[in-house]
Structure prediction request, 424 residues.
Amino acid sequence: MLKIGIVAEYNPFHNGHLYQIEEIKKRMGKDTLIVAVVSGDFVQRGEFSYFDKWQKTEMALNHGVDIVVELPLYYSVQNAEIFSRMSTKILDYLELDFQVFGAEEEDIEVLDRIIELQEREDYKKNLMELMKKGNSYSTSQKLALSEYGYGDAVKSNNILALEYMRTMKKENLEIKPYIIKREISDYNEIEIEEERKSIASATFIREEMLKNSGNPENIRKFIPEKTYEILERVYISNGKDDEQQKWQNLKNSMFKFLKYKLLMGTKKEIIKIYDMNDEIYARIYRGVSKSNTYEVFLKEVKSRNFSIKRIERIVLNILLNVTKKAVDFELDYIRVLGFNQKGQEYLKQLKKDKKVFNEKSHKMEELETTEKKANDEKIFVNWKNIEKNVHSEKVKIEKNGFLLKELFFNKKEILNPLIINSKI
Prediction:
């Protein structure tokens, strides 16, 4: 049985995701084990996720994923390099054979050549010169790669693919890359062609739901039926409110909280936040002082070298207290959000080599040495056991995320994993 890893947001799970899973089983066998690393309640764009981690886990487990694990929020809200690097390290730690991802470029050798090129001193020097001229990092990458004939490589999925593969090489990981070419539907598209029948990006789907007060009816053709049932349930439970207004209010509430933290805190405290420096601190502090809404704040702070997405990621780092010390590229723990019967069987098998913690195993099984205990206790299926056994500021940051979710959405964190008692 092959063991496959996927990195996704599933925000929401749509027909494109279903196609990927069906294609994996077609190419690698119906009995293939599929593990997904998902960003939870906060996503890489620097925002709250439209769907929470448990809704996303339920969608995934109902469509062929066997185990869902969470990318910790202090990694999930960072740039593509960190997001990709830590996701791949989690999949490798879970002893999976391949990481499958979509990319516009399906030739792994081409991506390998780009990675080698980006390590060259002449390339790095050229990239820095382009950035000094006021170009953004992504624009500079595209311009630099264009000089070597690879300008078309700077597309959203190729960027992630390059980072996944770079991590495998640099960290000397066992897991191998496998590309399923992304033919249609760009990751961030907000419009679709008329002839497109059943595939749309998650960005487009969310935009359509916002326009329709969260009602999934108008995007039904782009999502599997079980996803539709889950989204309809969410729509009904939310009271059919004006979604656009709700999310605008959320951002303005976050802005008030940001203003409070910046004006009440000291520069010495804020400068410890990840991706913060003196220049960025000055821009954000000035922007907060001059603005009354989140939208005005973003316009005030952005510049050619400081994108809105980076600003939003830093804002979340401030609100969650994600420090430079916390973003250390280490895996202190892996939290399992859910599994089905096949996934449960694999977790049991994994226990032979690594320690998977749950209430029963914690009480019944003692490890031989303190050193082994420190190395092996990384996979947990219950949040309380993470709190008991992981002594790190990262746990406090996760709990800050729980508190923000409760404050803004009135949702308490669920402590136990979601279990689907069937083999898909």
